[in-house]
Specification:
Layout: H1 8-12, E1 15-18, H2 31-43, E2 48-51, H3 63-77, E3 82-86, H4 92-105, E4 109-113, H5 122-133, E5 140-144, H6 146-149, H7 155-161, E6 167-172, H8 177-186, E7 190-193, H9 199-204, E8 209-212, H10 215-230, H11 234-243, H12 245-252, H13 257-267, H14 285-302
Helix pairs in contact: 2-3, 3-4, 4-5, 7-8, 10-11, 12-14, 13-14
Length: about 300
């Protein structure tokens, strides 16, 4: 008997945020900062918390730290939002280990990036993803981000992987809207926009939701945009998207989301400081002013 396909909307939510990893000034993880961030995101309308993703500086975290963060987010969220753990690496054995650690720590689901740096064939990508999906009972969202991995997950690969009962969704940071529509049409995969600049276009062609960096400070606006699209009010959705252009530009077109999201959260008083781990560096004074102006502009529009 074929195992029933899981519902990605139910398991992942629709308004997801790629969380930063709050740190103390010495670069150690701040659990109090993470607690405050979880409370802030839930209060502003986030129903899916993605921990240990790229924005969470996953490449600088040890396996123990990754599991620690998943456990802290799961304990703090207490069922108020789904907890999706980033577990992807370029090594299948290590990825399976992180997947099992995340499951044990209380994650509701997994986010698995295409293996990076090693550049496997598409057959290798399929073998990797299937091995990881078979390693736990958790649903899996694939993360397609060629700009970071050096290769895409081909449409044919996505279609083949969709046959697995626990591979149920895609975080699409490829930006090919036509391909996304084609894969959605041929599979049961739910799509989440992973490029803040394209949030509205993805929702308009049928994406289940957003997996946003800007959502660290504007999850309420994203929630309003999702709701507007779902009720067919594209005029309101366009107005919201346009109101976020200065903030999206300040956060996504310069130093990178992990750095700018921490700086923005610090300016809002959500986390105590904007410490990042090298090779990431703090924003310059001019970048901080640009970000502060953008945050003020969004606050004025919301108010």
């Amino acid at each position: 008997m074929t195992e029933p396909q899981l519902s990605a909307d139910r398991l992942f939510g629709s308004n997801l945020v790629a969380m930063v990893a709050p740190m103390n000034s010495d670069g150690s993880l701040s659990e109090s900062g993470m607690d405050g961030l979880v409370d802030h995101l839930v209060a502003t309308g986030c129903d899916g918390l993605v921990v240990n993703g790229t924005t969470g500086e996953s490449s600088t975290l040890t396996e123990a730290e990754s599991a620690q963060l998943v456990g802290a987010v799961a304990a703090r969220s207490t069922g108020r939002a789904k907890v999706i753990a980033g577990i992807g690496t370029y090594d299948t054995k290590a990825t399976i280990s992180r997947a099992r650690d995340a499951e044990e720590a209380g994650a509701d689901a997994l986010l698995m990036v295409c293996p990076y740096y090693s550049r496997p064939t598409q057959a290798g990508v399929i073998a990797h993803c299937l091995a990881v999906a078979d390693a736990t009972a958790l649903p899996v969202m694939l993360y397609d981000v060629p700009a970071r991995t050096g290769m895409e997950i081909a449409a044919s690969t996505l279609i083949e992987l969709a046959a697995h009962p626990r591979i149920v969704a895609v975080k699409d940071a490829k930006g090919d809207l036509f391909e996304a529509q084609s894969v959605m049409d041929r599979t049961g995969l739910d799509y989440y926009c992973g490029i803040d600049q394209l949030n509205l276009p993805y929702l308009a062609v049928g994406a289940t939701g957003l997996l946003s960096v800007v959502g660290n400070v504007a999850a309420d606006r994203n929630a309003e945009m999702i709701a507007a699209v779902r009720r067919g009010d594209l005029d309101t959705a366009r107005s919201i998207q346009r109101s976020l252009i200065p903030l999206t530009s300040a956060m996504m077109l310069g130093a990178g989301g992990a750095i700018t999201a921490k700086a923005a959260l610090t300016q809002l008083g959500v986390i105590p400081n904007a410490t990042v781990r090298m090779p990431l560096l703090d924003l310059t004074p001019s970048e901080l002013r640009l970000l502060a102006d953008a945050l003020t502009g969004v606050a004025a529009i919301v108010g």
